[in-house]
Amino acid sequence: MTFDWNAHRFSGGVLALDLANTVVFRDAPDRALDRFSDHSQLQGFARAAAQFRQGEWGDARFRPPEHPAQINRLIDVREAINTLFRTAVRGGGLQPANMAAFLQLGSALVCDEPGRQDLALPGSGMGARDLSLGTAAFLSAMRLLEPARLGRVKICPNCHWLYLDESRNRSRRWCDMTVCGNRAKAQRHYRRNRESSDSGHG
Ligand SMILES: [Zn+2]
């Protein structure tokens, strides 16, 4: 089966979290899987992100990193975004060291943009944008720092992805009900059946 950057892989709701979610099962190191360990996936992700993040960015092109130093910087900002928000969701707040790492990497990314680039945050209704993927993810994450939005960032209990719960009463339990919600339901069903059949032994 060939890997596809489909809608499910953009369940984060905003580019910053989708980027963090290019690692699956983060909270289970033996199962964790980094989609960018294959660098050829960077281009596909950037292209799909422009498609699936139109609601956040309007018409945009995200330039994938090419040189090894650019790739490392993107991975570093991805990890900084993940640590900053995952710690906050777990009740640890926006910690100074996490915030500093995030801002320093963001500063380096922003410095690499062309001098006349407008770095307005997404959602500002600007025309077509052309940004490096790392800068765009940084700006997307900046918007999440706002308390009303930060309070809606959650961790999916099944795949450990970060996602923005934009439901009216903040009731979303899964990154994607049709994938993780159903998988969890199937697991509960399996466990229940196994327990009831086990109970006959002994
Ligand atoms: Zn999930």
Automatic annotation (TrEMBL):
InterPro entries found in the cross-reference section: ABATE (IPR010852), ABATE_dom_sf (IPR023286), Znf_CGNR (IPR021005)
Signal peptide: none
Residue ranges constituting the Zinc finger CGNR domain according to the UniProt record: 152-192
Domain of life: Bacteria
SUPFAM superfamilies noted in UniProt: Jann2411-like
Organism: Phyllobacterium myrsinacearum
UniProt xrefs under Pfam families: ABATE, zf-CGNR
Transmembrane segments: none
Protein name from the UniProt record: Zinc finger CGNR domain-containing protein
Gene3D superfamilies: Jann2411-like domain (1.10.3300.10)
Record-linked PANTHER family: BLL6575 PROTEIN
